[in-house]
TrEMBL record:
Stated family: Belongs to the multicopper oxidase family.
Source organism (scientific name): Ceratopteris richardii (Triangle waterfern)
UniProt keyword terms in alphabetical order: Signal
Family matches, as Gene3D superfamilies: Cupredoxins - blue copper proteins
Signal sequence bounds: 1-20
Descriptive protein name: L-ascorbate oxidase
Length: 558
């Protein structure tokens, strides 16, 4: 959220150039055009360029070969390590046989939903084509990841970590760790993504995954060697498609320090629930007897527990891991709720900018609009679909963002219902209208038996309350208006609700979706529009000069 902070100064720019020497990939300082804004990037800040060739490959996982996505030959995809305010320029070459887009989970895409990489904002990169994303990781520090959004490619990998570091001048609220480890945990289906997509198209649910991967490897495939006595920052993301996971390391505690870009009050836990699409940073100190320890990610709230197993190896030890896996919670909901409530915002820590996080008093801002979103399972023509507020979303051939920009009618309607309708579900492409700089109260209601995970593109939102039953205006009495965690991916427990608050300061067309990919694919998503009131590029970046056109936008002039 941009308003957590203030404006860029040339002082910070100087520091950034110093910090940039630690960037390992190709680096160039952009020519100065006096602070002019190009696309969603800033010419005052450094640019880091990547070229990605996305192709098919086969990996053997959980004993079965499966066609997966490779990025420059890698599975998972390459890690992006960057620093606050750097412009990322990522040229994606589609060398697969399907349309392709990537999204940058948790990155605000400040003023530039043009770069968000979902079908409502971007035309897909067609086979043989390429597209260069250009966006600034503006005012963010933290742990994120990217993944493919088109078709059902998310079930074929194509994900990777995206780490945004603080500028050295703005210290962390804890001792700089001795090292970093990215841990991508996620469920895995041994069926390939075309078979999975075929099941969904035929109206069948995917069911339970076959296993859990850690860093793209099955049990005992990831072997992480670290030094005794040292403290590491583990950046953990749940990159899976359907399953909440519990992460833990035998004999070692996890100190939670960050969640999707917010410094948390440091909280030491034995294990941590990470819902689909969420990211955390935790500190782990290798303070145990040198040896090997299990690092596990096990499914939560499933009838059968599936486990991902990696090994933490002390570099000075020869011994081998043995014995039972460390135990953890399985189906307990209350445990998860209690843990989620205990992780709060550190008001005195600074994040991307020197002012303390708590100087943004979100609890003192008056709510100007409310929406309550309730997901549902439904059947249409004998096939499984999902909906939210009765609308089962359908992707039109023209991205909503382009239709809106070029004033092309008939692509979407601006009448998404603000509240659950109670009526039966229907197919549609409806957008929730909002007011620029309004303050939105968004309530996610879940009357199903599953743990839902909603993701808000373009924003983080303060998770002010989680509780059982149905939300009502009286529920506002229980809001945490002081130190609730701001996050972009929000779990909603069974027969419960989660309320969030967000300032609508990022103009654009933004996707709000279930991160449970079967649900997203079958209609449980929507877009909300935050209008640019005066068309100024201060509020919204101009259309990129390399924009891809499709649908009825073909032939338009950007
Ligand atoms: C991408 O990789 C494929 C397969 O290795 C190769 O045939 C193709 O030439 C590469 N394309 C680019 C743009 O590097
Ligand atoms: C997916 O698996 C099916 C067999 O279940 C196979 O027929 C099909 O060719 C595979 N598709 C890809 C893209 O690997
Ligand atoms: C495709 O890549 C070329 C460089 O190889 C680049 O100049 C061009 O802008 C890219 N296309 C798009 C649409 O970004
Ligand atoms: C919060 O941040 C402050 C300032 O950086 C730090 O000194 C303190 O240890 C943090 N508190 C907790 C509970 O993490
Ligand atoms: C919020 O609303 C109250 C009551 O209408 C008003 O007194 C107060 O000034 C408002 N606060 C802000 C920050 O606008």
């Amino acid at each position: 959220m941009a308003t957590l902070c203030c404006r860029t100064t040339s002082f910070l720019f100087t520091i950034l150039l110093t910090a940039a020497s630690i960037i390992s990939t190709s680096y160039s300082s952009a020519a100065s055009l006096d602070g002019e804004i190009i696309w969603g990037a800033s010419v005052d800040d450094a640019t880091q360029s990547f070229s990605w060739n996305v192709s098919w490959g086969i990996v053997y996982l959980l004993g079965k070969p499966k066609q997966v996505l490779l990025i420059n030959g890698q599975f998972p995809g390459p890690q992006i390590n960057t620093i606050t305010n750097v412009n990322l320029q990522i040229n994606v070459f589609n060398s697969i046989t399907e349309p392709l887009l990537f999204t940058w989970n948790g990155i605000y895409q400040r003023r530039t939903s043009w770069q968000d990489g979902v079908l409502g904002t971007n035309c897909p990169i067609m086979p043989g084509q390429n597209f260069t994303y250009l966006f600034q990781v503006k005012d963010q520090v933290g742990s994120y990841f990217y993944f493919p959004t088109t078709g059902f490619l998310k079930a074929a990998g194509g994900y990777g970590g995206l780490q945004v570091d603080n500028r050295v001048i703005i210290p962390l609220p804890y001792k700089t760790p001795d090292g970093e480890v990215t841990i991508l945990i996620g469920d895995w289906y041994t069926a390939n993504h075309t078979d999975l997509q075929g099941s969904l198209d035929a109206g069948r649910s995917l069911g339970l995954p076959d296993g859990i991967l850690i860093n793209g490897r099955g049990p005992f495939g990831s072997y992480i060697t670290l030094d005794p006595g040292k403290t590491y920052r583990l950046r953990i993301s749940n990159v899976g498609i359907s399953t909440s996971l519990n992460f833990r390391i035998a004999g070692h505690s996890l100190t939670v320090v960050e969640s999707e870009g917010a410094h948390t009050k440091q909280l030491t836990l034995a294990n941590l629930d990470v819902h689909v699409g969420q990211s955390y940073a935790v500190l782990v100190t290798l303070n145990q007897i040198p040896g090997e320890y299990y690092m596990v990610a096990t499914s939560r709230f499933t009838s059968t527990v599936v486990s991902g197993i990696a090994v933490l190896h002390y570099s000075n030890s020869q011994s081998k891991v043995s014995g039972p896996l460390p135990s953890g919670p399985t189906t307990e909901i209350d445990y998860s709720v209690t843990q989620a409530r205990a992780i709060t915002w550190n008001l005195t820590a600074n994040a991307a900018r020197p002012n303390p996080q708590g100087s943004f008093h979100y609890g003192m801002i008056n709510v100007t609009e409310t929406a309550v979103i309730e997901g549902a399972v439904t059947m249409m023509n004998g096939k499984l679909r999902y909906a939210a507020n009765s609308v089962s979303y359908v992707n039109p051939p023209t991205p909503l963002k382009l239709a809106d920009y070029f004033n092309l009618g008939g692509v979407f309607s601006l009448n998404y219902p603000r509240f659950p309708t109670g009526g039966s579900s229907f197919l549609g492409t409806a957008v929730l209208p909002t007011t620029f700089r309004g303050f939105l109260e968004l309530v996610f209601q879940n009357d199903e038996d599953i743990v839902q995970s909603w993701h808000i593109d373009g924003y983080v939102a303060f998770v002010v309350a989680i509780d059982g039953g149905r939300w009502s205006s009286a529920s506002r009495a229980e809001y945490n208006l002081v130190d609730a965690l701001p996050r972009s991916t929000i779990q909603v427990y069974p027969h419960a609700w989660t309320a969030v608050l967000l300032e609508l300061d990022n103009a654009g067309m933004w996707n709000l979706r279930s991160q449970l990919w079967e649900r997203q694919y079958l209609g449980e998503q929507l877009y909300f529009k935050v209008p640019n009131p005066d068309g100024s590029i201060r509020n919204e970046a101009p259309i990129p000069s390399n924009v891809l056109l499709c649908g009825v936008a073909v032939g338009q002039h950007p």
